Amino acid sequence: MKFMEVTATHFGPFRGDTLHLAPGFTVVHGPNESGKSTWAAALFAVLAGRRRAPGRGTGVEAQFRKRHQPWRGSRWQVGATIALDSGDTLDVTQDLVGGTTAIVPAGAERALGRKELEERFGLTHTDWADIDVGELFGLSRETLRSIIFVPQADILRVLQDAKKLQEFIQRAATTESLDVTAHQVLEKLKDEASTRVGSESIGQRPLRRTLAELEEAKKATYALRAARDELRLTAARVSGLRGDEERARAELERVRVLQVWAEADALEQRLAKVRGYDEQLAGLASIGEPAADDLVERLRAALNGFLNRDALPEEPPGPSADELREQLAELPEMPEGDTAPDPAVRGLWEALNRVTSSLDSREDLDHAAPAEGTLPDASSDELREFATQVRAARPVWDATHDEDESRLRDQYDHDLAQHARDLLAWQERSASQEEAMRRYTVAKERYDAERVTYEQEVAAFRGRQPVDGGPGRRASDQYARSSAGPSLWLLIAGGVLVVIGLLMLLLDPVIGGAGAAVGVAVLVAGLVMRGRRPARVADPSSGTPSAQDPPVAPTPPEVPIFQHPGDKPREPVISDRVDDIVRRRDAWQRAASEFDQRRVELTTLLGDRGLPIDPNELEGLARRIDEREGAKKLADEQREEIARLRVEVGDAAHRLVDALRAKGPLDVANPRDAREADAAYRRYEEACAERAVVAREAQRREELTRTLEIREQADQAYREAVGRDAARAEAVVAAAREVDADTGDDPDQAAGKLEDWLGAQNRAREARHVRDNVLSLREQQLDGATTAELEEQLTTLTSGLGERPEHLPSEVDELVAGAAKAVEDAATERAGAEGELARLRRSEGDLAQAVEAEAALSREKSSLEELKSILDLVAGDLEVAQQEAHRNISPVLERAIRGRLPLVTQGRYQDVRVKAETLAVELLDPSGTWRDAALLSQGTTEQTYLLLRLALVENLGTDEAMPLILDDVTVQCDAARTVALLDLLHEVSKERQVVLFSQETGVRAWAREKLADPQDRLIELEGPVPGRR
Questions:
Q1: Residue 773 to residues 277, 564, 766, 780, 975: CA-CA distances in angstroms?
Q2: Which of 160, 176, 246, 380 has its CA at a distance of 20 to 30 angstroms from the CA of residue 543?
């Protein structure tokens, strides 16, 4: 099968773009964001389509949808033209929105229907609109993604999907294509176990359903037994409650008699209280009535005002108000001017003192210039430079450099001799590899010719067969690709089906009998095919096959194991250290010669100028010259500083005088004279001190004014208190006269008389209040009746009660209420128990029937568990057979990888091991140690698993030679391995189509050199796709 072209109708950034592919090797090159990965995804979508099942799908499907949906518009569609190995051409259109597929043969006007797909490809499908094109060739979506398509940075996906590929791995383990594999039988056993038995905890299969029903039956039996026990207990409880109710009623009658005696006692107590109240009223009849309330209150207020009056205050002490007024008149007025020196003026005076002190300290120093001495006519810097030159040391050569040079030259001579020997060995290995490649090329060409002849014979053989276009043609095609007889799989499948059929007889006789019959038929077919195998194997030497037997396919030549000769030895070069030593020696010789010449010139110059040759003496002369120049400079600076300070003193004195004049008149002859300015400031300070004394006296005016105001207020309060005391005395005397108390004008005697009168009024009021209370209590006890009526009621209560009890409880009403409540509760509880007993008798179930149902479910559970153990035993035997299949496929995969491994790894790894159950790969390194390929460098890992994918593609056992779609698989390869891998893919493309997407310039350069139409093609995409988000 080959892609002729793919059209992105509405796919990702593309809209109606088409990519034409070559039948052999196609390299699609382009920069980043040019759409390479999108084209690769479009090829995958053509074969895999998109599932129509409800829901969001898997994470991989969601990511595919998110990355490749059209950037604009709602349509999502991709199509392609596919050429089959039989020569037929199909136009495939995938509607990825609705998940539908249209397959149109070349020249037809409509898509193939269900019946045509069944007849042409031998398919059976439940939803023909959702068919994957890969299923036409026996491949699922997962297989396409794991083997055929290698997305960018996803070479190791084959490890993740190893379990999903087991069916195809087992088909490759045999030399013929069978309709059943151990993987399929195991899946059938698991399906039957799931359908007929199921899990104990998941789903609603028979085992879990039976366990649930058994649990419910046990619960029902337990509930019925518990209900019968509860019925017995409830009947006994009803009998006990009836006795409790009778005892409660007897207790109620007893406490009611006590309640009547308690009422009689209460009535006797009421009569006794009424008689006592009558006696109290007779004793209060002699007390008179009190005076009017308003009179009593007015007189009490007058008395309280006199008794509660405040004591007379003392006359205010201290100077009188007149004396304070005289002191205010004698105080002086506030003086004008500063009472303390202004801080700004004092700051100017202090500044004058500071600058005057600095001037005095400078004038005391010695400003004479130093005496001239006998010194050379040269500067100090020049003398120091002469001293530095005299001290300079002559350059020295390191003798170890000569030893290093001699050693490195000897090593170079040795490397030259070794290079000659290595070059000769490399030339011999290269010649051996070229000869092995030539022999393989000759064998491959012979195989290609035999293959062409074989395909012609197959076409002729098909022409002689009945034209049914259905499963018969598929069987002949599969048999034509096989080169040996049937394996043991038909016998294994038949045996398993017989066992399953016998087991099914226990549950369903019809299905079990049919399964056993099919198993026997498969066993017979396996025995017949095994019996026919020797005649078919011996036939190739006889010449032409019979008309009923398909031709035998030629055996491809085995790819030789190439031992890569390695890189060509490079000619050694002498060490750069030798040239460096030579340069250093030349530089030293020049430096030493220049130093000697400069030393002679320096000695002559010092002698001509009369300077010493000793560097210490030169430095001493330089220091003396610096000291002389420094002394001169210091004297000049001192004189300049004194002149500047004198100007500053005059300025400071002038500023101080100006500030003092602003404060008042000032007598100063020379404002720039520091002494006159200082004297003027001192006079200013003395005047401030005098004004401060006067100001302190003037400030007493406010205090004396406040004191005078306080004295006047105290005199007024004293006069008001004396007036209030006299008014209260007059009021109490007038109040005494109102009650006819003759006390004269003495207020104290009048207050005493008032107190006696008010006491008598209080006693009269208390007597009236007691009489009113007694009358009220008497009426409460009589409660509208007379004394005679109460006595008659008492006689009526006590008649017929019998003997009076010796002791009556204090809370007899509570006892009666409690006894009544006990009777009511007992009756309620007894009625409830009788209702519960009636309900239990109505709801009592059939306990015997429940026990029988539980026993039947227990037997069904045992049968299902026995069936599950038998199916598990058969599955275990099949897993052993599956492991045998893995042992058969591993050598096939290892042989396919081993012949190509040295080419792509530059001869570093020579052997390989493959675990078919996990597809893990191990490589043999040069030290003889097996290494896990997934743990090697990223480049080596991806190259190894790419070879595994090639091996799987070549041994898929499908009707068609499936293409290989690769996206940037050389990213982790160096230049040499990239070329080797491209050469290998080019060789593979002679048998199946290979499409490689890449953005590497090295791949493009190789393709430009090696690929040519029409068999191969290089497609160069332009820059980023327009409109990229």
A1: 10, 136, 11, 11, 128
A2: 176
With pLDDT > 70 as the criterion, what percentage of the chain qualifies? Answer: 79
The residue with tokens 């207050």 is 751
Structure tokens at 641: 């500083």
Contact 64, 78 (CB under 8 A): no
Helix, strand or coil, per DSSP, at residue 994: strand
Secondary structure letter of residue 153 according to DSSP:
T
In this prediction, residue 467 carries a pLDDT of 44
Distance (Å, whole) CA 92 – CA 103: 5
698, 713, 731 - which closes a domain: 698
- Please give the structure tokens belonging to residue 10: 């509405």
**Three-class secondary structure of residue 999 per DSSP:** coil
d(CA 63, CA 77): 17
CATH number, domain containing residue 95: 3.40.50.300
Number of domains in the chain: 2
Residues 950-993 pLDDT 10s: 888 777 667 788 899 988 888 888 888 888 889 988 988 988 99
Would you state the structure tokens that stand for residue 1006, as one six-digit string? 């190789």
Residues 47 and 962: their CA atoms lie apart, in Å, by 11
Average pLDDT estimate for 988-1007: 91
680 in a domain, yes or no?
Answer: yes
Pick the more confident residue, 493 or 344: 344
Q: Could you tell me if 133 and 101 are in contact, meaning their C-beta atoms sit under 8 angstroms apart?
A: yes
Q: Are 1002 and 981 in contact (CB under 8 A)?
A: no
* CA pair distance 751, 314, nearest whole angstrom: 25
CA distance 988 to 1007: 15
Asked if residue 532 is part of any domain, the answer here is no
Residue 192 has pLDDT above 80, yes or no: no
With contact defined as beta carbons under 8 Å apart, do 450 and 554 qualify? yes
Supply φ then ψ for residue 3, to 5 degrees: -85, 125
User: Is residue 1029 a part of any domain in this protein?
Assistant: yes
Query: Residue 353: is its pLDDT beyond 70?
Result: yes
Helix axes 576-608, 380-391, angle to 10 degrees: 130
Reading the block at residue 695, the tokens are 């100001």
- What is the rounded CA–CA span in Å between residue 946 and residue 159? 12
In which residue are the tokens 């209420």 written? 817
795-818 b/e (C-beta count within 10 Å ≥ 16 → b): eebeeeeeeeeeeeeeebeebbee
Please tell me the distance from the alpha carbon of residue 650 to that of residue 648, in angstroms, as a whole number.
5
Q: Is residue 436 part of a domain?
A: no
Domain limits at 353? 346-366+646-698
Phi-psi region for residue 83, left (φ > 0), alpha (ψ -120 to 50) or beta? beta
Domain boundary among 664, 698, 732: 698
